[in-house]
Design brief:
The complex is a heterodimer of chains A (338) and B (226).
Chain A lengths: L1 H33 L5 H19 L1 H9 L9 H24 L6 H18 L10 H36 L2 H42 L8 H29 L5 H20 L6 H14 L6 E2 L1 H31 L1
Helix pairs in contact in A: 1-2, 1-4, 1-7, 1-8, 1-9, 2-7, 2-8, 3-7, 4-5, 4-7, 4-11, 5-7, 5-11, 6-9, 6-10, 7-8, 7-9, 9-10
Chain B lengths: L15 H26 L3 H28 L4 E2 L4 H24 L9 H26 L1 H6 L4 H33 L6 H33 L2
Helix pairs in contact in B: 1-2, 1-3, 1-4, 2-3, 3-7, 4-6, 4-7, 6-7
Classes of the chains: A mainly alpha (338), B mainly alpha (226).
Chain lengths: 338, 226
């Protein structure tokens, strides 16, 4: 039965990774398509390769945070960890599927953090952990990073575009500047894909790192194969479904010139990569929204719609409790019946 | 497509292409007004009526564009210019085509036999108005460059020069109106009702050029008031 659960965990992790590639990675890459810096084909190739590299080479810190930063897994029995991992993955995966169907701009990061917290609370309720053992301070740090990251994206993007506007546009003809930034945007497209892979791979594979890290003894070292597995899932998600999302979102983005695309992408990727370095699981798409607003505030865009902020906050508030409750439910069922 | 999550809505509605479309309609209305006047001079009153309908149609299209902008440009949007300035400008621009519509109607009120001299002066006035509105259209079309350069000083300067050109063309229209008024009020042999109608045309033709000049001034406030 345990083997079945492990297989189930691996399959759900792959499904999560696929989803991250199909939707989140695609949303991040859509700006490159919107400004026509790269063709759809080029974007798919760039995104698949760099998401994989970001995940495999730079994903470890965020995986550690989600795997052992919220629930003190070292205090739990390995069997319970397998139940917990399965519960977290199934509930996050289920909520993401529902939200995707309803077109809610939720974050996979928020879903998995809520689900891991649900697992922790379920363990507390069954007396396997004390409530104080849950790492609340770490959780508050994570939630704070969700607020700070879009703001950081906005400030960075505002500054970058203002520099372009007040230095480069004044000194050179704007068409020349745009032409140069077309090539620079190829670089930022790679940068975004790498950063996204490094931060979001954890949303899929951190729960299986909980299982394998522990059974291998000394989970502080996360097996590289797990990161590569997540990276592969993301790449497959982009190639099999993400291209449609890139096309659809990108076609709506007509006001984005190369300089604007560069500013938004550079700000997003820098914020996300920094978060990956310090192990903070943040939402790339929410950071991107912040960055686009930053470019808008710097006078770079013809029309930025702030209504999306309300929708994001709404789905933010929904995601944490829903994925948490789902996770508590699934974990309890597994403990009681399996 | 059912399965997607997106934050693409953050890229909102851009009102600027619609502003340009609206200005293009204004230019076309003046063009039709010229043709309508020629038909009037040739006493082809069915054609005069047909052109009236065409201008009415353009005016209602322009109203739709105006409504489109007014419904989409909400307070929750970040625009590169002030929202209120934008709406004021559009209101001013809309007066150009509204006045075209008025003159189009006035040409159907009564059948007047135009003398060669008077008809010639009217055609001069109309071509001056056309010139003024063409220049005006060129000004509005610059909005895309202004947006792309985020209102770079050089581009703003170039547009300010066009605005001055619109204003000086409006002044030429005034001169032409003055001449026509003098001519009409000294045509003692003409039927006073005919004179009265033609004076009304002159006054309202003047409103078209005035509207273009006023909208150009609003445009200036909009691009500088940032």
């Amino acid at each position: 039965m345990i083997d079945v659960l492990i297989v189930l965990a691996v399959i759900s992790a792959f499904y999560m990774a696929w989803n991250i590639g199909a939707n989140d990675a695609a949303n991040s890459m859509a700006t490159s398509y919107g400004s026509r810096a790269l063709s759809l084909r080029q974007i798919i190739i760039v995104a698949a390769i760099l998401e994989f590299l970001g995940a495999a080479l730079f994903g470890k810190n965020v995986v550690k945070t989600i795997a052992k930063g919220i629930v003190p897994i070292e205090l739990l029995d390995p069997h319970l960890l397998i139940y917990g991992a399965v519960a977290a993955l199934l509930s996050a995966g289920l909520w993401i599927t529902i939200a995707t169907y309803l077109h809610l701009p939720i974050s996979t990061t928020h879903s998995i953090v809520g689900a891991m917290l649900g697992f922790g609370i379920a363990a507390v309720s069954q007396g396997h952990l004390s409530l104080n053992a849950i790492k609340w301070d770490e959780l508050i740090k994570i939630m704070l990073s969700w607020l700070i990251s879009p703001l950081a994206g906005a400030v960075l993007a505002f500054s970058i575009f203002s520099l372009i506007r007040f230095i480069l546009f004044r000194k050179f003809h704007y068409e020349k500047v745009e032409r140069v930034f077309r090539y620079l945007q190829v670089f930022t497209a790679c940068y975004v894909a790498f950063a996204h892979g490094s931060n979001d791979v954890a949303n899929a594979v951190a729960p299986i790192a909980v299982i394998f890290g522990h059974t291998a003894g000394g989970y502080y070292e996360i097996p590289r194969e797990i990161l590569a597995f997540g990276g592969l899932g993301i790449a497959i998600g982009i190639a099999t479904w993400g291209y449609r999302v890139i096309k659809m979102v990108g076609e709506r983005i007509t006001q984005l010139t190369y300089t604007r695309g560069f500013s938004a992408e550079f700000a997003t990727a820098t914020t996300v990569l920094f978060a990956s370095a310090i192990g903070m699981p943040i939402s790339t798409t929410h950071t991107l929204v912040g960055s686009v607003i930053g470019v808008g505030l710097a006078g770079g865009l013809a029309g930025v719609n702030l209504d999306v902020i309300q929708r994001i906050i709404f789905s933010w508030i929904l995601t944490l409790p829903i994925s948490m409750l789902l996770s508590i439910g699934i974990y309890t069922i597994l403990v009681v019946f399996v | 497509m059912k399965f997607f999550r997106s934050v693409g809505q953050v890229f909102g509605y851009s009102p600027f292409p619609t502003l340009v479309k609206h200005a293009v309609l204004c230019g076309r209305a003046v063009g039709i007004l010229q043709k309508q006047f020629e038909a009037y001079e040739n006493e082809d009153f069915d054609l005069v009526e047909k052109y009236r309908e065409e201008i009415d149609e353009l005016e209602s299209q322009a109203d739709e564009l105006k409504e489109e902008v007014r419904t989409h440009v909400t307070r929750s949007m970040i625009l590169p210019i002030d929202r209120q300035d934008l709406l004021e400008f559009l209101r001013a621009q809309d007066e150009i085509i509204n006045n075209c519509e008025h003159v189009g109607h006035m040409l159907t009120f009564r059948k007047v036999k135009l003398g060669v001299n008077i008809a010639g002066e009217f055609k001069i006035l109309l071509s001056k108005i056309m010139e003024c509105v063409n220049e005006y259209e060129r000004m509005v079309e610059h909005i895309s460059t202004l947006i792309e350069t985020s209102f770079d000083r050089k581009e703003v300067q170039a547009v300010l020069e066009i605005i001055q050109e619109v204003e000086s063309l409006e002044h030429e229209c005034d001169q032409s109106q003055l001449k026509l008024h003098t001519m009409l009020f000294n045509s003692d042999a003409l039927n006073p009702l005919d004179v009265y109608l033609m004076v009304t045309w002159v006054v309202h033709l003047g409103y078209i050029a005035n509207a273009a000049s006023r909208a150009a001034d609003r445009f200036r406030l909009m691009i500088l008031g940032r």
